[in-house]
Design goal:
alpha+beta; single chain; Rossmann fold; 6-stranded mixed beta sheet; 2 domains; OB fold (Dihydrolipoamide Acetyltransferase, E2P)
Length: 353
Amino acid sequence: MSFSFTATVADRGFDVAIDIAAGETVAVLGPNGAGKSTFLNVTAGLLRPTTGRARLDDRTLFDISPGRTGNRWLAPHERGVSMLAQDALLFPHLTARDNVAFGPRSKKVPREAANRTAMEWLERVDAGELHDRKPAQLSGGQAQRIALARALASDPALLLLDEPMAALDVSVAPMLRRMLRDVLADRTAVIVTHDVLDAFTLADRVVVLEAGRIVDTGPTRDVLDRPATPFAAGLVALNLLVGTRTDDGIRTDDGHSLRARGIDAIPVGARVGVSIRPSSVTVTTGTRPARTSDAVTISGEITDLEPRGDLVRVRSTGIAADALPARVAELDLTPGATAWFTFEAGDALAYEL
């Protein structure tokens, strides 16, 4: 079913409009405090907006305008919306099967039919053998599979997933991700996540929220391969420089002149994003590296040194580079020190914002 949503929540600075096509899975990304939970809670009926309207296919979930009589607000259980949270939140006194059967039973489905539906979903999430266990007897991964089955057993018109992998062990998350990919096929769903792998694996489209507003949206690969915001760039481990197309290249907002792949397709005067992988950036100290026609060198104050396997991510105020630990020690890199960050124009990708 299709879903259209527009709402404001005045005391949270939230003002968002989203349309989701029938059978589409949309990933909502954003830093803490961006408005992701507000969006989920308003959609689920757990938070009343200041103004707004939402429709799920031909059903109005809410239609609110201050000062108007006849505002509409459906209770959560009347919306046809299920939400899967970070924690399974299973009923502790019920078995796995009875937890999953709860949704159908609450819709007045006879016990025997509800139990059949519960077992069908338990089998589908590979948890049929757990049907008679209570939550205290389940591992975290098992409990989340039961919670997924419970969310789907009531046949929701819209499925909301709030960081479904966040509380799971790293060894369990890939299995649940594959399972979600299968059950979300042709189902209208929203997944809130901080994990870029969730977005790439599960979502048809991405919406990026910051400070209660949508700052970027589009097909998943388009948004994440060509990020428009520092947050989105950070998710996919890319450097992002922003500037304006000039007659002879790009002038960044920080005052650097550079060229990059893709620049010829961008009109003069357009706003431009330039992405560079940290692995393509070298870091040095001392005198500025010798200038070459294709090299771009930027000065930056080191803010952080982050070990990443056999490399160290050297972050500065404007750009980051990956370096070997021995090289970091040789250059005596420390937070607060100034360094030179250099990359080749051919390693940078320019695109219109």
